[in-house]
DNA sequence: CGCGTGATTGAAATTTATCAAATCGCGTGG
DNA sequence: CCACGCGATTTGATAAATTTCAATCACGCG
């Protein structure tokens, strides 16, 4: 956590919207009390840099609201998005000094922060937090590996279809996916999509229009996408029929 | 763990070559005793399938010796290597029924196996194992994300250089990297390299000969590579000067 | 000695990136 | 209210990188 945040406050954990999914998901009331006492809320405006690779991190945090992106770059500016942080996702790595990636707020972001040292101590005392952190790390690992398949082997069209289908699955209830004309709002710009998919902006744009021409999607303004038939979109992802999800 | 293994035996943990790096690294002697009682050694010959994505896994295991590869594939046979398993690496995921990836032995492999249920129970009772598992998962996550940068943004030449430099760093002591004419043995075939780097066999082959023509490497038989100047190779990886490692 | 697998090389095709220009959306100031 | 300008997006033409298809080569082994 490098950059200054604009505000700092605290609310009670019992009202916390990410209570059941964040690192604290498995905590008992007394453990929650302890967390409550040492946490600090901070907010970052959209666009603000939350962490810079290689710089000192003295905080860890959960995302309470908003979206942030995790990126890595090489010398000449090429950058790859490595993860998307949504509410309940965790930032920071116990037992490491420097931030391993760059993190930038996409929308305004609210963070539930802990100073790193006390948090590390707390991990040892509170196995529930460590258990949950392990679960979350393994889920992220699965997601990262799915993405490796996409980046290493999928065509531009398949990448776009995969992204759209990912967003659909995250945004909609499973039963809603059977309906016709599902509408989603892209949470990120074309540039961010390109960085996510390992493509250029132009290729992203072209593949979107091509999918539209083929009737797989309809484009509705800059950020809106309407999917007439989700199954048809899924068929374009290149994945096996299960859509990458294990039964 | 799906496939049948050829042999099954047990040796004492105190002689275990991966004792200090595997999931049991942080265990006290009494904890080790407990592990010792419930572990089973198994071996797989080179080429054998160790796990198949989607199939039931009733074992978790550490790699004691040998090398295995973790892959994911899509419908038409395109496959992406998602990880390389070396001695001390862990196979299996607590709290999940089905294997999330395919795993294949590259060389003969010796595994230190635990039945999944008892191991899961043991995780709760032995925080040292869980701590270590978390560390290992986070390290793997970092590795997966580095690889995402490679797959999404690097050129074929940079990918090859990155792989060679990765193997160098794994195989040699840091001080040996300063020497001239470092020799490494590629642990995997051209096809496996291609699947690792998200390229075709032919591109791998061409880039290797091109790097050789440019004097960055010398090719020494099918599997041997001699690197006259490691720094020069590192400069071809596209990474910042730190070579992707955080201080 | 010939066979087979894995690796290399070559030529053509395809995909994606790059460079350049046009368009769109939208808030601002006149 | 409307023209202006800016950033983001789309579109077009061309170039570059990588894949694909097809041969050839190298080498270990029966």
How are the SSEs ordered, and which strands pair?
The structure is a homodimer of 247-residue chains.
Chain A lengths: L6 E3 L19 H10 L1 E5 L4 E3 L7 E7 L2 E6 L5 E7 L4 E2 L10 E4 L3 E7 H10 L1 H27 L2 H16 L8 E6 L4 H8 L3 H13 L4 E3 L3 E6 H5 L13
Antiparallel strand pairs in A: 1-2, 2-9, 3-8, 4-7, 4-9, 5-6, 5-8, 10-12, 11-12
Helix pairs in contact in A: 2-3, 5-6
The structure holds a DNA duplex (30 and 30 nucleotides).
Which structural class do the helices and strands of chain A define? alpha+beta
Can you say what the CATH homologous superfamily of the largest domain in chain A is? Jelly Rolls
Number of strands of chain A: 12
Strand content of chain A: 15-25%
Rounded Rg of chain A:
19 Å
CATH architecture of the largest domain in chain A: Sandwich
Q: Counting H and I runs of at least 4 residues, what is the number of helices of chain A?
A: 7
Largest interface: A-B, 50 and 50 residues
Which oligomeric state applies? Answer: homodimer
Largest β sheet strand count, sense and barrel closure of chain A: 5 strands, antiparallel
Using the coordinates above, name the CATH class of the largest domain in chain A: Mainly Beta
